[in-house]
Design goal:
With 215 residues, the chain is mainly α. It contains 8 helices and no strands. The chain is elongated.
Length: 215
């Protein structure tokens, strides 16, 4: 990847970061890691909620972290092939990174954080479409924060987001039916642990009864 194309934008963003108040800088430093934990919280709450829903909802909730894992693995494989040096060492004249520059050998392209964020955002949005208003901005902010703190080029995070999102969507599409079948099987197994993990499922629909009037 030709890092010289986005190096000027990297300089502009890191200069902008150093012009920000210290509390904004600290917030970005926290968010660049904390954001991943918040996605984890959404995975857990999504699974807990899906325990009382249908087999399809449970399958999607369980697939969300699995699909995110696929996104990370593909990103990590690509990172080991490209071997792009981090901009906090490679870009001359750039402002110092707000966080410690990763060691040599921890390559830059693509951004694993962004890949995970993109994959999680898409998987959670598929499982619960109403969450897209939250997960998509979270992923975008996570990606931007990686450039803001100085450890990635803009193209690292852009490709990471798109790669993670694409892999995650593909994984959900391929595994959705098998996961739904597995959820159905687990719920019908009768095992106590399985019953707790999968939940009772959706409550049976109530059938309205028409009562005739006696004359």
């Amino acid at each position: 990847m030709d890092s010289s194309v986005t190096a000027p934008l990297y300089r502009d963003i890191t200069d902008f970061a150093h012009d920000m108040p210290s509390w904004v800088q600290h917030l970005a430093e926290i968010w660049t890691e904390l954001g991943l934990l918040l996605f984890g919280v959404l995975f857990i709450t999504g699974w807990w909620r899906a325990r009382r829903l249908g087999d399809g909802a449970l399958a999607l909730a369980v697939l969300a972290p699995v699909a995110t894992g696929f996104g990370y693995v593909v990103s990590e494989v690509l990172k080991s092939v490209v071997d792009e040096e981090r901009p906090c060492r490679a870009v001359a004249g750039a402002a110092a990174s707000l966080v410690t520059c990763p060691p040599v050998g921890d390559w830059s392209f693509p951004s694993n954080h962004s890949a995970i964020a993109g994959a999680a955002a898409v998987a959670l949005a598929i499982a619960r479409p109403r969450l897209a208003w939250l997960t998509v901005p979270m992923a975008l902010l996570m990606a931007f924060s990686r450039v803001f703190v100085g450890v990635h080029y803009p193209h690292d995070v852009a490709v990471g987001l798109l790669l993670g999102a694409a892999v995650s969507a593909l994984a959900v599409a391929v595994l959705r039916r098998p996961a739904e079948s597995l959820a159905r099987t687990v719920r019908s197994s009768g095992a106590p642990v399985a019953a707790w993990a999968s939940g009772p499922g959706a409550a049976p629909a109530r059938r309205s009864r028409r009562r005739g009037k006696r004359h």
